[in-house]
Amino acid sequence: MEMSEEIYANAKGTADDRADYSDSENSYEDVYANEDNLETQRTGSFKQSDHSGFNTERGRCYRLTAVCVLLLCVFLLTAITVLWIKFTNLNTQIDQLQTSYNNVTIKRDHLQTTYTNLTIERDQLQTSYNILTIERDQLQTSYNNLTTERDQLQTSYNNLTIERDQLQTSYNTMTIERDQLQTSYNTMTIERDQLQTSYNTMTTERDQLQTSSNTLTTERDQCRNMMAGVLVKQGWRFFNSKLYYIPTEEKSWTESRQDCRERGADLVIINSNKKWEFIIKHLGDKNRAWIGLSDRVTEGEWKWVDGTELKSGTGYWYGGEPNNQHNNEDCAEIWTFSDKKAWNDRPCSEKQWWICEINIF
Ligand SMILES: [Ca+2]
Ligand SMILES: [Ca+2]
Ligand SMILES: [Ca+2]
């Protein structure tokens, strides 16, 4: 019994020593050493007590059992050590996984936050995209309108350019015409000044002539009055600014007219009722006298000696006259009929009195 306790004590000591995992081989040597010691002690014990062979066999069983137990312990220690190492590794891995999990969780949360933010930004971008699309459409519409307006403005610009060119041409033409007019104006101004000078000169001359005319008119009137006085003294009769004379001899129509012209007069022209009445009154008892009326140039066209025509149906013809008797009566006379004095056509060659008329006023 004491030997078994020692064996267990050594085994325990060996087990304690083997707590240090790195000295396992030395522990085995210690076991064998203790076994040798036990052998020595058993030898000593066998020497001390002389037991039988049965006890020897049982000791061997004990030692074999102890070895087996020892080997089992070593195996268990090794297994525990291995398990411990694996456990430690597992803990380490678990810590690492926990750390990774935490990191992944943080990353996931971060990604979630990022995703949320991106979703918000996407929505905002979508809204902005929609707004931009609307604005783009509006801008497109505005662009189209502006394009149309630009085309219209281009057309207007082209038209205005054409009109401007036309106006420029007109302006150039008008400028040339203006210059020509300016030249004409200058020329006319010079001419006007010359005309003004001429006008002033002529006005002066006119005034001088007017003075001379007045003087001459006065002298003429004096001469006319003197002439009228002389003619009246010679037998002429004054009536309505004219003088009339009836010679005392008898001549043909042509000779009669020639006589009047020699006196500065001509045969009388009877163109008013008052003159006709004056002539009849002063004709006296002379029953025939030539007047300045004839149709010698064209038969039937009676003209006065000043060239004026006697209108058909006028005059103081006696009834049935002028009759152009024998187709030879081309000169007019004043003839005294039974009831009155009137005109008659008579051959121009007949000799009779005549009446001269002169206008000295
Ligand atoms: Ca006649
Ligand atoms: Ca005739
Ligand atoms: Ca007649």
From TrEMBL:
InterPro entries per the UniProt record, alphabetical: C-type_lectin-like (IPR001304), C-type_lectin-like/link_sf (IPR016186), C-type_lectin/snaclec_domain (IPR050111), C-type_lectin_CS (IPR018378), CD209-like_CTLD (IPR033989), CTDL_fold (IPR016187)
GO MF terms, alphabetically ordered: carbohydrate binding
Segments for region (Disordered): 1-26
Coiled-coil annotated spans: 129-170
TM regions (residue ranges): 64-85
Membrane among keywords: yes
Domain of life: Eukaryota
Domain C-type lectin, residue spans: 239-357
Keyword annotations: Coiled coil, Disulfide bond, Lectin, Membrane, Transmembrane, Transmembrane helix
Protein name (Swiss-Prot/TrEMBL): CD209 antigen
Species of provenance: Ictalurus punctatus (Channel catfish)
